[in-house]
Write a structure and sequence with these properties.
Blueprint lengths: L9 E3 L13 H7 L5 E3 L19 H6 L5 E5 L25 E2 L7 E6 L3 E6 L2 H7 L4 E4 L15 H4 L7 E4 L15 H15 L8 E6 H12 L6 E7 L5 H13 L3 H13 L5 H16 L7 H7 L6 H7 L20 H7 L4 E7 L6 H12 L8 E6 L6 H4 L1 H16 L1
Parallel strand pairs: 7-8, 7-9, 9-10, 10-11, 11-12
Antiparallel strand pairs: 1-2, 2-4, 3-5, 5-6, 6-8
Helix pairs in contact: 1-15, 5-6, 8-9, 9-10
C-alpha cells in the first residue's frame, strides 16, 4: 500500500494539562499529558510506503489475517498520519491545545481491510502490547444508517496516548464509507454485521469483550443487541445521545427543528413530505444548519459529521430504514424500539461490567429521552450505579467532537477501571 501526503505542521512546547484534574480523574490527566510536548494540526497528512507482511503486522487484525481467510487486509503502518482526505482525526479538538491533535495520535501502528469482502474495518494499536497490558479494545459504532466511521475517528487517540497498548476499532456499515453495498437493507443486516465484526476481532468469550462506544438511537440499537449476544462481546457500554425508540428521537429532533427559523423548519418539513428533488438543496441547507446547532457545534472542526449527515441521492440504506427522513417517522425503523424491560439486569447477566450514557447539553435529543435509557439500565441494580449519566456542557449530540478531550479522558476512567 502506498500512502502519499505532506509533512504536518508542528507546534512545540504545549503545556501539560494538569489543570484538567478539577474535571476528571487525575490518573487520566497525567497519562493523557504524557510526553505531549509536540502536537500536530488536524487533519494532517504524511508519507509512507511501508508495506507489512502478515508476520510483520502490529495489530490484532494482523494476527487474525495470518490465520483467517475471510478477512482480506491491506496492511500498512503510518509514521505520522494518513492523507487528510481519509478523515483521520476528523473533527478532533483539544480544549487545551487550540484544536491541535497530540503527535502520538499519528505514531500509532494501524491496519485496515474488509471482512467477508464487504465490511471495511480499521484497527489502531499494537495487539501484543495491549494483550500484555491486559487492555481490552475499544469498538466504535456510528449513528446512521448511512454515516461512515470517520466522524468518530478521534477515538483513535485512546490508543496513541498509551503507545498503542490499547486497540481501537472503527468500521463502516454496509452501504456507506468504504464498505460494500447490499442488495437490501434492514436492521437485521446491521445487527448481524456488527456481530460479525466483533467475532472477527476475537473479543467475545475468552477474549474478554470490548469497550463499545455507540452514538445515537441507531448506534445504541446495534450496540445493545451486541451486548446481549450470548458470546459476550461487550465489556463496557458507552452510549452517546441514545433514545429508547426511533419515535422518541424523531419527536425530539422535530421539537428542536420547530424552535429554529420558520424558513429552516419549512424547508426541512416540505422536502420530507414527498422527497421532491427540487427541494433537496434547501433541505440540505436546513439539515446543515440543524446539525451545526444541535449535532456538532464546532463549526468547521465538526463539519465531518455535518457533511456525513447531509442526504445523498445514493443513500439507499437511509431510504429503506428511515424513509430518507430525519424529522418524520418513516421506513422500516418507524416502529422500532430497544427492549428496555430488565435491560440493565440482562446486560449484567451477560457480562457487561458497567454502562455509561452521555448527552451534550445542547443536544436536540432531550434529557428525558436519554434518562429513560439510564433508568432502564439501573432498574434492579442493588445500588443503582450500574449505568452512570453524564451531561456535558457546550456540546451537541457529538460530545466526542465538541468536547473530544474531556470525552476521551472520562472514557479512559471507565475502561481503566474495568480492565483493572
Amino acid at each position: 500500500m502506498s500512502i502519499s501526503a505532506t509533512t504536518p505542521t508542528v507546534a512545540s512546547s504545549l503545556p501539560r494539562r494538569a489543570s484538567r484534574a478539577r474535571c476528571v480523574d487525575a490518573r487520566a490527566v497525567s497519562r493523557r499529558g504524557r510526553d505531549v510536548e509536540t502536537v500536530v494540526s488536524a487533519p494532517v497528512s504524511s508519507s509512507s510506503s511501508d508495506v507489512l507482511s502478515s508476520s510483520d503486522a502490529l495489530g490484532r487484525r494482523g494476527a487474525i489475517a495470518a490465520t483467517t481467510t475471510s478477512i482480506a487486509l491491506a496492511l500498512a503502518t503510518a509514521r505520522e498520519a494518513r492523507a487528510g482526505s481519509s478523515g483521520t482525526m476528523c473533527g478532533y479538538f483539544d480544549d487545551f491545545g487550540g484544536g491541535l491533535v497530540p503527535k502520538y495520535a499519528f505514531d500509532t501502528p494501524w491496519n485496515e481491510g474488509t471482512i467477508d469482502g464487504a465490511t471495511w474495518v480499521r484497527g489502531v494499536g499494537d495487539y501484543k502490547k495491549a494483550k500484555k497490558a491486559k487492555n481490552a479494545p475499544v469498538l466504535a459504532v456510528s449513528n446512521g444508517p448511512g454515516v461512515s466511521h470517520e466522524y468518530m475517528s478521534a477515538l483513535e487517540t485512546l490508543s496513541g496516548e498509551v503507545g498503542g497498548a490499547r486497540e481501537v476499532f472503527l468500521y463502516d456499515q454496509r452501504g456507506c464509507g468504504k464498505s460494500a453495498n447490499a442488495t437490501s437493507y434492514d436492521l437485521n443486516l446491521y445487527v448481524n454485521e456488527l456481530k460479525r465484526v466483533a467475532e472477527e476481532l476475537g473479543v467475545g468469550g475468552d477474549g474478554g469483550g470490548a469497550h463499545v462506544v455507540a452514538h445515537g438511537y441507531w448506534g445504541a440499537r446495534l450496540a445493545t443487541e451486541l451486548a446481549l449476544d450470548e458470546r459476550r462481546f461487550v465489556k463496557t457500554l458507552t452510549l452517546v445521545s441514545p433514545t429508547a425508540s426511533r419515535a422518541n428521537e424523531v419527536r425530539d429532533w422535530r421539537r428542536a427543528l420547530d424552535a429554529m427559523s420558520p424558513a429552516t423548519r419549512d424547508a426541512a418539513i416540505e422536502y420530507e413530505e414527498d422527497l421532491d428533488p427540487a427541494r433537496r438543496d434547501a433541505y440540505e441547507a436546513a439539515v446543515r444548519e440543524f446539525s451545526e446547532r444541535f449535532v456538532s457545534r464546532r463549526g468547521r472542526t465538526g463539519a465531518c459529521f455535518t457533511d456525513a449527515l447531509a442526504p445523498k441521492s445514493s443513500d439507499a440504506q437511509r431510504r429503506a430504514i428511515t424513509g430518507g427522513r430525519y424529522f418524520t417517522l418513516g421506513g422500516s425503523l418507524a416502529d422500532d424500539a430497544i427492549d428496555v424491560d430488565g435491560l440493565g439486569e440482562r446486560l449484567r447477566r451477560n457480562g457487561v461490567r458497567s454502562a455509561r450514557v452521555v448527552r451534550g447539553a445542547e443536544d436536540a435529543t432531550s434529557a428525558a429521552s436519554v434518562r429513560e435509557i439510564v433508568d432502564a439500565m439501573n432498574a434492579g441494580s442493588a445500588d443503582g450505579a450500574f449505568c452512570a449519566y453524564d451531561e456535558v456542557e457546550n456540546a451537541g449530540s457529538c460530545v466526542f467532537l465538541d468536547r473530544a478531550d474531556y470525552f476521551c479522558e472520562t472514557l479512559d476512567i471507565v475502561v481503566e477501571k474495568s480492565d483493572a
